Structure formats: structure tokens, C-alpha cells
């Protein structure tokens, strides 16, 4: 009887494994890793002069796809609809500078963070004496902006709720709203703002660089796919130990040569 029960249990486990192959297994069989991203987040994912999607996270995903022995396919997707697109199988995982938040974690699973960033401010130069931190903006006389669907928007509405808020579909439009004097401050991740103040600021913006939030960025997968999470987490651990991560990080965060390739 014990032998019979053990046989039944093994059969059930085998059938369960077949029924829930997991994202990584599906990717290896297909030969392509499809990643959803909104390529507007410098220097993580962005479009160069030739229309190619490049960036820190893109290179990390290329290394991941190489480790799987498959090709990488980037699926350009609006950020505010990126989680629904994952859940309806438009791609295999999210790789779009997404902050791991508890609210999002109720809908999807996240890998271990591959980098930690924080929200910072780009403000109009004229406000240099009046605005020293996000707290100074929490006043109805100020107008603030960010990209819709991001933690920048969440933070603006939670921590700076007294100010007037107007969001945009992409970062560039929001930054230009401040450059043109229609808004007083742009709220976004530090790596983006440190580039945007020079690239798009037109000498009219100040970068308040001290982050006022803690935001781990991670890859997003459908809930329940723990085998794939295990593989991705092991890949990230290996990349950080063998120098792959440091090489990619230095290319995008310690060097600005890539700016010449942008519009």
C-alpha cells in the first residue's frame, strides 16, 4: 500500500510539473525571452537615434537571455498598462525599471531587486531659495508633475498631496512642463533626473539629488511561478559575483558616452 501511495504521489507531482511548466521553461522551448518595457526611462531603457532600445536594464536582460540560451525580444508597452499586459500573456516578464511595491506585489511576483533608487526632484531654478526638499512643495501654491503610473505619481499624491498635480504619459513631457514654467517640480527616480537635468533642463532646472524614498527595482513575473523566480534570482547573484553586473553598471552609470547616441 505504501509503495502504491508513493507511486500515486510521484505521478501527481509529475503531472503538476507538466501543467505548470513555468516561464523559464516556456522561454527555453520557444527560444525567445519576451520582456515588456516602456523605453523612456534613462539610463535603464530608452530609444537611441537609430530607433534601438538600449540601456542598463536592456544589457542586463541580454545577459539573462544569453544565460538561457535564447534570443531577447523587447515588447514596447505603455507603463500604466504593463501589469495587465503581463497578466494577459503579451510577454513573459516585466523589465521596465519597476519599483517593487506592496501594492504591485499583490498582483504579481518580483525577483530580488537588481538596483535600489529613490525619488528626487527637478525644480525651476527660480525656486532655489524656497524649495530645499519635497516637504517645501507640499503647498497649494505649487504645481508638481511626474509620469502617470509610476512611484513618482504615487509619492506626489501621498507625500505632497497639498500641491496641484498633473501627470503625463512620459517623462519627457513632464520635464518640459517644468522647463516651460508650467509646473514647479518634477518627481522621479534619481538615475533619470541626474541625466535629465543636463539633457533636457536647458539650464532652467535644479536637481535636488537627495532621495526621499527607498525604491528597490526588480523584474516582474506572474504570481506562483517560483521556479522561474529561483532561476532569475540565481542569475542575478551570479552576475553580481562574476563581474557581469559591475561591467554593465559602469557602462551606464559611470560613463556618459551613451548620451551621444541619444536624440
Describe what you observe in this structure:
- Mean pLDDT is 91; it is low at 4-19.
- 39% of the residues lie in helices and 19% in strands.
- α6 links the parallel β10 and β11.
- The protein folds into 2 domains: 21-116 and 216-261, 3-Layer(aba) Sandwich (D-Maltodextrin-Binding Protein, domain 2); 119-208, Periplasmic binding protein-like II (D-Maltodextrin-Binding Protein, domain 2, 3-Layer(aba) Sandwich), CATH 3.40.190.
- It is globular, with a radius of gyration of 21 Å.
- The protein has helices at 2-19, 23-30, 56-68, 82-87, 102-105, 151-159, 171-179, 190-199, 226-241, 244-253, and strands at 32-37, 40-41, 45-47, 53-54, 71-76, 93-94, 109-110, 115-117, 119-124, 143-145, 164-165, 185-189, 205-208, 215-217, 220-221.
- The protein is α/β, with parallel strands linked by helices and 263 residues long.
- It starts with a helix and ends in a 10-residue tail after the last helix.
- The protein has a 5-stranded mixed β-sheet. A 3-stranded parallel β-sheet has the order 5-1-6.
- α3 (56-68) packs antiparallel against α10.
Domains (count): 2
Mean pLDDT: 91
Proportion of β residues?
Answer: 15-25%
Rg measurement, Å: 21 Å
Largest sheet: 5 strands, mixed
The spatial strand order of the largest sheet comes to: 11-10-12-9-13
- State the low-pLDDT regions, or none: 4-19
SS elements, strand count: 15
Quaternary structure: single chain
SSE class? alpha/beta
CATH superfamily of the largest domain: Periplasmic binding protein-like II
CATH architecture of the largest domain: 3-Layer(aba) Sandwich
Helices and strands, in order, run as: HHEEEEHEHEHEEEEHEHEHEEEHH
Number of helices: 10
Shape: globular
Bin the helical content. 25-40%
Query: N-to-C terminal Cα separation, in Å?
Result: 72 Å
CATH class group of the largest domain = Alpha Beta
